[in-house]
User: Fold this.
Amino acid sequence: MALSKSHRVTMNDGNTIPVLGLGTYAPRSVPKSEGEMATKVAIEVGFRHIDGAFLYENEKEVGQAIRAKIADGTVTRKDIFYTGKLWNTYHRPELVRPALEETLKNLQLDYIDLYIIHCPMSFKAMEKCKDAGLVKSIGVSNFNRRQLEMILNKPGLKYKPVCNQVECHPYLNQSKLLEFCKSNDIILVAYSSLGTHREAPWVDQNSPIVLEDPVLGAIAKKHNRTPAQVAIRYQIQRGLVVLAKSFTEKRIKENFQVFDFQLTPEDMKAIDGLNKNLRYLIFKQAVGQTTRLIQDHSAGGSHSFRSLFVCHLLLAPVSTAMLI
Assistant:
């Protein structure tokens, strides 16, 4: 069952986004071919929203999967909603378009549907990419309320961000941020909606596993569903767009079976009560990623001096002036 029109929501620029997407991040230990396989399976199952990023280092494989499913007639390009992200090393305005063009080259696509800033930085250059027709919609990721207000209150703002992609799951339900985004016609997109892949050192290995929570388990049993399906359905009923990542065929299929049942108000209240403001992903890893890029270059990597220079800038404190 492919996503129907009723499984999309309209963004503030008039474009629509599927409410359920496949996340394509994987640890370096996972072969890139698995990302390609997972993307193909997801499209066959009915996923039409594919969430990727330059940081994930698998854009070529994901793009190959998308093009293969277009070539065999499973979907058309218009059916697919692809999200890409601008990584920290390309946030200087003059680097934004080249970074987007590199993503398009990796994917071998003419445009992407949504391009978002991976972390709070420059937004003006993103507007120019939209004007150039390289991307249909632009948004942000990992922005708090204050950072969103800086963009929304910016004189001469041409395009309001259509979305804010953040970590969101039953242990971190982001209720205040969700309320603010709704009041400003910005869609909140949940990543790590099932908890997280728990990859060290990104995540504290002693943190609780959300899908093992007994409350989720009891609700899942009542509806004859999995805890993951309940966690996804919870976010959909709250009005979020949800990213569910898995490279396992069985789980990809299960994660899509969330449109034929409804959580009760009592279920929703019980899951709301699980909130611990527990953030699995702490963004100190952005510095780690930057350091790794520099180390790779020292070991013979092919990164440009310009990218490395920006990396060094990122290791210094970020000025809020760069946000706009």
Notes: Strands lie at 8-10, 16-18, 20-23, 49-51, 81-86, 112-117, 135-141, 163-167, 187-191, 241-244.
